[in-house]
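Translate sequence into structure tokens.
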Amino acid sequence: MKLTKMTERNMIDRKIVEGLLAHKSQRTLVNELRVGFRRIAKVEKLARDAGYLDGGVPLPAFPEALFEERLRAPSQPSDPEEKLLPHMAWMAERLAAGWHKVTLHEEISAKVPVGRSSFYRFLDRHNLGAPAERDRVVPEIVHRPGEALLLDWGHLCTIKCPDTGKKRMVWAFVGILGFSRLMTVRLVWTNSVDVTMAAIEEMLVEFGGVPSRVTSDNPKCFALQADKYQPLLNPAFEMLASHYGFVIECLPPRDPEKKGKVERPVPFVRRLFEAHGEWKGIEEAQEYLDRKVAIANERKHGTTGEKPNFRFIDAEKSALKELPPLRFERQEMAEPTVRQDGHVRFKGKYYSVGEGLRGQDVVVLGNARLVRIYHKGKLLCVHERVTDRAESKSTKEEHKKPWERTFSDNDHLLEKAARIGSSVRTLVECVLATQNGFVETRMVWGLFHLATLYSRKDVDDACGMALEIRGHSYREVKRILESTSTPTKQEGKRKHAFTRDMNEYTNHIKTKELAHERHDTARPTSHPEALDRRSGASQSALGNEEKYTNRMGCLAPRA
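Result follows.
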């Protein structure tokens, strides 16, 4: 319990008088009570006048004061007291709403020019607010000029959206240079990849240079997977780091003390914003916070003892690397799953990654020109972004089956035609010259199919006759062959590779029945009737072999 100054003075006076009655010397009382000789001499004189030291007057009971004249009347109010008294109700209301004392002083200074010490004494005299608690000091991590930019997010406030009427959270993205403690803040709605990258770029432009390292926690926009030793970094963040030339440092999980220089100022940013009035939009709020942060950067820092902006200009700005001439191209990010057809969906279009990753999660980054697909930090493939409304898929040639691939030339078709005959090659050249894509390719493969039904000489002769009458089509060559040649192979339904002849199933059934008979005759038995029954069963099975073939043939292995 905190004692008032009057109560504390009365207690010291009582202890001095009690020590004098115990015949203690003034030096002993000075050492025990930590008071001066003048005060002990003054209290001793008051005690003799009151009769306490002669033994004639007993000491009054505690906590009654020993000396009435020590209860001094309050002094005349000072000049700050008179200025601040009319605003006491307003200050009490703001402190009850959660404002800090320093925020209250910043706002009241615009109305009443009063020093900070006089303002704090006024609050103490009138018991307004409680003293701020301080945490223990964490050992400092020393950064050299231009070495590190520390980043962190913090919930700034929750506002009611004027358009939708729903509550929405506003986040403060705080960046602090490790050496100078120069602070900058960006207000954002989310920590998505594009918003975060844009905020970092704005910070670097504001600093006028690039630090050697950027330190942060492990949000998804920075690290896809946190790890104590080496996190799996987000490819978009790696591309940004490569463009600006800084090293990424994602700290180990659950170890925020390693970036305490930015962890601790996050509540300070909330304190800077607490005097903001009605929400008028994130742009207006950003301007208000920029003014507050500029004032904060002009004050002495509690650790360095220097003003951050002066320390930055004097020692750190020259140590930063130059900004690249071009801004970083914005990247859109998605984390889709590979579909069964080997494609991933990104912004309404589909891009191939191959069949080996079906059901796997990948990371897709896209800009205005290219789409990059990553799996566990490894670049799989790069596609040109599909922008044509008539197209929906981009499939690479290496991801297609061999018969689905479109070759850049037709040499393989001409070589195959030349092996059949010279007239076939000439006719194929005439068909391909029309450049109708899949239409003429089908006709070419039809000509090759005719070479499997007729002899190559007949097909070559038919193609020669078709060239003479300018019948450059598959159907014309087929008509000629049907009227002039005899097919060497009948075209019909192709037999499946695993289809077997019915005789194979019948022989298998008979083999199994004979094996059963040998087994039964070899086994000794004392019941002849049983042998007759088994023999009868075997004959019945052989007599119904067609029935067993239909039922069990599908289960018989190939001999």
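Note: The chain has a mean pLDDT of 83.
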